[in-house]
Request: fold
Amino acid sequence: MPHLPTLLIQVAVILATARLVGWLSRKIHQPQVMGEMVAGILLGPSLLGWVSPPVSTALFPTESLGFLNSLSQIGLLFFMFLVGLELDPQYLRGRRHTAVLTSHVSIILPFLLGTLTALYLYPRLSDDRVKFTHFALFLGTAMSVTAFPVLARILTERKLLGSQVGSVAIACAAVDDVSAWCILAGVVLLVRAPDTMTALWLTLFGSAAYVIAMLSIIRRAVSRLDLIYRERGRITQDTLALILLLVFASAWVTEHLGIHALFGAFLVGAIMPKGHDFVRALSGKLQDITVVLLLPLFFAFTGLRTSIGLVSGADMWSYFALIIAVAIGGKFGGATISARLTGMSWREAGAIGILMNTRGLMELVILNIGLEIGVISPAVFAMMVLMALVTTFMTMPLLDLIYRAKRLHQDSDSSKVMRAA
Reply:
């Protein structure tokens, strides 16, 4: 069968499944993206391939997956650009001490626990083809991430952005995302770098020089885009084309430097002007097509690489239980305790811990990079994907249990009164 008709059928099936399962997800008070993540798993070998292998093979033949992957990677570039675009230093205003302490502890503790866990998991779930250092650093990074976009959506749906808890959580998630991606860039660089120290130092120097150039020269240049937007009152097609060219160029450079294309797209979003109207207008241009069409393709491609059947037997499920315990203990425990030490009540600190434990889409992005560069096996990939689903799913019910909506609205109202005063 020609590739185009196959691709069109795949996109239609993925889109319909994602919208349906996403709708069901909202019915049980979960974010839409949670259902879309599950939809991707359902279309893979974990369900469709297990229930009806002929249908799965006909719908997703191996030779067609390259095209699906390419489309999903374009969607990821747009998504990471949007993540960087929505990161705003204003999140830290008035909450710098709490946000910095909580975010750093919620990165460092799960990272350390993840690397320590690697001592136990490496001889059981990896082999000599992967260096222990690479495996341990990647596992620590994967344990440390928080899903900034999913968290923002949860806070918006719960009308939490104006509350103290919501403000601290979004600030911490922003710092966590930047930190996690910087660590991941270093890990990918180590794994991909040539064995010679000279080549490694050249790659490191080139990467550092590129980041400095982006944060200084290119950042000053793109700051004019906000002025152009104010003059014209809209983002023109030429402006959008220029921004997309910058995204693709940055992604190409970071890919060739050995970091990853996604880091380049994220960096362009991070240096964009942060004027509220400009960000909203630019996000509106890209968000719908990215969220509705392209990201479900990534979820489906992730699902096609995830075989829950690999997690079988008492030993494998015990390894999975350890991963879950470390993931929740490090992220929830670290964020809760550090928030409490800054003066927040146990109820508020617990809410922060629950929110920071949300991994969602960002975890899947990192895991796909790990599988792509060969630092984790398909079995570890499946366990970590399940961990991402579990930690994301538990956020809403636990948040309602520990910090109910009525109290959240009271906090929001109190915050408004304090700001007015």
